[in-house]
Amino acid sequence: MMFGNHVKIAVQDPSYPIYVDGSVIIGATGNYNNSKNNFDNIVYMKCSSENNFFPDLSEVERTDLIYFCSPNNPTGAVATREQLKELVDFAKRSNSIIIFDAAYAEYIEEDYPKTIYEIEGAKEVAVEINSFSKTLGFTGVRLGGSIVPKELKYDDNYFVWNDWNRMMTTIFNGASNIVQEATLKAINNKCLEEMRQTVNYYKENALIIKNCMEELKIENYGGINSPYIWAKFPEKKSWDILTNFWKNAML
Asked: What is d(CA 195, CA 109) in angstroms, rounded to the nearest whole number?
């Protein structure tokens, strides 16, 4: 909403649907193509096992906004420092703004960036968003955070932060006192320790599923630095796989 409905948008493909859905709501996506299953005004950046779940930026056209999620929902892929550096450099050349979703950063256990600001120059091109839903169990409470660096500016050198602040103070009056108090209680050392136990519990479940797929020789990705696993079933549709699963589960 803050950037208007005349911007062009790029998203990972696949990615969390809200990036597209939110753009549809503000009228920034153009017409929908049933034959292609996509929108006119969205650039879908292919992220698959064939390209290590990172788009070939040399083939991506210039857009105003780039939505990027790492760890990714639903593939479970995590971007390396080299990949994020490539993304930041691309955004600088394209004069684009990255909307970086780090909601699952707490699930990263290997040597991957947990924030895009680990990359030099990212403060000049990126807004980072995060959420307590995936770590503290605040789903429904709706509390998260956004980082809009003062280094991030429009073409006329006007600070993006100024618009962000105006939007937030106009359409959002802030979290309630109850939610703020709950958050303060939740981020003490004891609760953070319990939070990490919960994160590890979900990761353990993912690993059980991943190991099962490995035993069944099913090609899969993710499940290590995220709670998501992306499995490949050649020549089959996802919906058919899900339908057959539930049929067998009911037997």
From this structure: 15
